[in-house]
Amino acid sequence: MAEYAVQVQDVFKSYPTGFLGLKRKPVLNGVSLTVPRGTIYGILGPNGTGKTTLLSLIANLTYPDSGTIKIFGRDVRRNPEFVKRSINICSGNPNFLWSMSVAENLTYYAMLYGYLGREKRRRVERVIDLMELKAFRNTTFDSLSTGTKQRLALAKALLSDPALLFLDEPTIGLDPDMAIKMRRIIRQVHEEQGMTILLTSHYMKEVEETCARVAFLRGGALAAEGTPDELKEQVSFKVKDPTLEDVFLELIQ
């Protein structure tokens, strides 16, 4: 069994830009990091620093210009089917079939994941219960509140029991009470299923409460990495009782 859920080694990524796409805009510049199996790992940084691009590369949704990426010891480029079976993604901007109900959307995705009959129904009902969506099972997606849409997105991602779960800004736009509930559910799922979770967020308090280790990206490169306590030690000489927010502000200067 692989010790690391994710291994990123010297990854570069750029995108075409300018007239006819003849120039390249660098997004990631030699990023290397390892994510221990079974941890909640935060990837942080200002907008445009490459967080979502890094997740897309690890998920094999796009390819690096150079460098290697492995999940659970397997190269993602050489093992695309293994990647598909091992991961799922929850975006902070969920988009489902607007005219279908919560139960219908979840059933549709369960079928896409290959579940049929009794197993399909079991998985759908399990995530409806877990995400407290019973009261909304027959409500169409376009009628749901922002918070309920977020819960539906996480329910969808959990249908397949992924070994590696990507949470891209999972509480963006939520009111404080709903954000607290989402963080509680994330921790509960992690503890009960032991899955590895990669989390991006702009909310430092959320990361501090949730993540065992954190990587800060700046200018497409890795600026710092460690446990929240290890990172806070870097600014403790400047700030009494520092938070991850203090670390973030220090790193982006």
Structure overview:
With 253 residues, the protein is of the alpha/beta class. The chain has one domain (4-252): Rossmann fold. It contains nine helices and ten strands. The chain has helices spanning 51-58, 80-86, 102-112, 117-130, 146-158, 176-193, 204-210, 228-233, 244-252; strands at 4-17, 23-36, 40-44, 66-71, 74-75, 87-91, 164-168, 196-200, 213-218, 221-226. A six-stranded mixed beta sheet has the order 6-7-8-3-9-10, with helices on both faces. A hairpin with a 2-residue loop joins strand 9 (213-218) and strand 10. Helix 3 (102-112) packs across helix 4 (117-130). The longest helix is centred in the C-terminal third of the chain and has 18 residues, at 176-193. It is globular. The mean pLDDT is 90.
**Fold-level CATH name:** Rossmann fold
Overall, the morphology is globular
Please identify, by name, the CATH architecture. Answer: 3-Layer(aba) Sandwich
| Alpha carbon gyration radius | 19 Å
Question: Helix amount, in percent?
Answer: 25-40%
User: What is the number of domains?
Assistant: 1
- Largest sheet data: 6 strands, mixed
| Helix vs. strand class | alpha/beta
Order of helices and strands: EEEHEEHEHHHEHEHEEHH
Number of helices: 9
